[in-house]
Amino acid sequence: MASISIRNLVKRYGNFTVIRDLNLEIADHEFVVFVGPSGCGKSTLLRIIAGLEPITSGELYIGDDRVNGVPAARRDIAMVFQDYALYPHMRVYDNMSFALELRGVPKAEIDARVKRAAALLHIEPYLDRKPKELSGGQRQRVAMGRAIVRNPKAFLFDEPLSNLDAKLRGQVRAEIKALSQQLKTTMVFVTHDQVEAMTMADRIVVLQSGNVQQYDTPEAVYERPSNQFVAGFIGSPTMNFFPVELRGEGVALSHDGTAVALNGESKARLKNAGGKGVLGIRPEHFAIAPDAAEGMPVAIKLVEPLGSDTLIHFDLAGSTAIARVDPALRPRVGDRLALRPQPGKTHLFDADNGQVLS
Ligand SMILES: Nc1ncnc2c1ncn2[C@@H]1O[C@H](COP(=O)(O)OP(=O)(O)OP(=O)(O)O)[C@@H](O)[C@H]1O
Ligand SMILES: [Mg+2]
Questions:
Q1: How many angstroms separate the alpha carbon of residue 331 from the centre of ligand 1?
Q2: What pLDDT, on a 0 to 100 scale, did the predictor assign at position 178?
Q3: Is the pLDDT of residue 250 over 90?
Q4: Which residues pair with 33 in a beta bridge?
């Protein structure tokens, strides 16, 4: 049993409160990813779970055990850092076996565990090398191997892939995901990378200033963000936001009165909120209106071809917005288009507190 349960957690450094009253339940075998802006408390939370950082107040359970005050070495949790922290003078094999030797595990068992982990990670050919004789991705795998041989109750990863180039990142990302399915161990993974979060997580924790803004599956966080912060944080390029209001029978951009085609349900939600709100449209959820009168008129300011699709930048309602369009359209700077949100793909938020209007 290696569920992780955090209850009413508070963490202060002197007068500075990093985390206030955080509650989080991570299930046994679950792969949970923490995302959030720099300084929001991701590493602090991970270090608290690992036992590297004391709790100011609240409770932490690993499985059924309350581990407040239990030293890191006795928590049976492995942490893999961004900089790997391998011992440079030791061979890969010794880097992996070291912790087990300290614990007095019999030699034959150590050997079996190291070989099993090395096979799992495809690093058998490098067991006799020193870390400096390995590529970044191979070093990263050794760091994971060192964690795996300990057979921990849970793995904690703090941005382990951020030193790798894009191609290797993709590869190691897939390996870690596959590994988590093989090992069936609880994993908590911190990343800045949206793609990592979306592809690896069973559930994503979106943190802001030490508060959980949403804790849900990647699909739910993307499709049904609970507030404007989450909506703006998840997705790349970021969601476009426009203040909107009911005007007569329709909905208009507050800035200049441009009509927006929204369905009856969205209108009802705006009405409940006093007639005003913030409309969110992801770049991939604009459509080109078949009839110019039904769309919002825009002029393209900038074109970014990505190959698979093309981003167009334009001014709308006093700010720059981005739409993702089919490259076959061959958009050019200066072209005029009429855009409208795809039906059912819009988001509406409270103008005052940013909560989703439902
Ligand atoms: N030892 C410390 N003493 C005082 N403040 C600290 C200490 N460690 C972290 N902090 C502060 O706590 C806040 C959270 O830091 P943390 O390292 O958890 O952020 P993070 O979400 O991991 O950020 P990043 O994405 O940049 O790694 C930051 O404002 C940081 O300055
Ligand atoms: Mg950090």
A1: 43
A2: 86
A3: yes
A4: 189, 204
Q: How far does the centroid of ligand 1 lie from the alpha carbon of residue 75, in Å? A: 23
CATH for the stretch 4-225: 3.40.50.300
Radius of gyration (Cα) for the chain, nearest Å?
A: 25
Phi-psi label, residue 39: left if phi above 0, alpha if psi -120 to 50, beta otherwise: left
In which region does residue 75 sit, left (phi positive, over 0), alpha (psi from -120 to 50) or beta (all else)?
A: alpha
Token reading at 68 = 């407040």
Q: Enumerate the domain spans of the chain.
A: 4-225, 240-349
Q: What is the pLDDT of residue 1?
A: 62
The answer to whether the beta carbons of residues 87 and 139 sit under 8 Å apart is no
Could you tell me which residues come within 8 angstroms of residue 228 by beta carbon, excluding any fewer than 6 positions away?
A: 241, 278, 280, 349, 354, 355
Look at ligand 1, atom 28, and give the residue with the nearest C-alpha.
39
Ligand 1: residue of 10, 11, 22, 44 to mutate (most ligand atoms within 8 A of CB) is: 44
The atom number, within ligand 1, closest to the CA of 36 reads 21
Closest ligand 1 atom number to CA of residue 14: 4
240-349 placed in CATH 3.40.50.150: no
What rounded mean pLDDT belongs to the chain? 93
Q: CB under 6 Å to ligand 1: residues?
A: 13, 16, 18, 36, 38-44
Q: Pick from 249, 333, 260: which is nearest to 295 by CA?
A: 260
pLDDT-derived band at 130 (thresholds 50, 70, 90) equals very high
Residue 350 DSSP one-character state: -
Determine the pLDDT at residue 234: 96
Cα 69 to averaged position of ligand 1 atoms, centre (Å): 21
pTM score, two decimals? 0.92
Buried residues in 281-316 as b, exposed as e (16+ CB within 10 A): bbbbbbbebeeeeebbebebeebeeeeebbbbbbeb
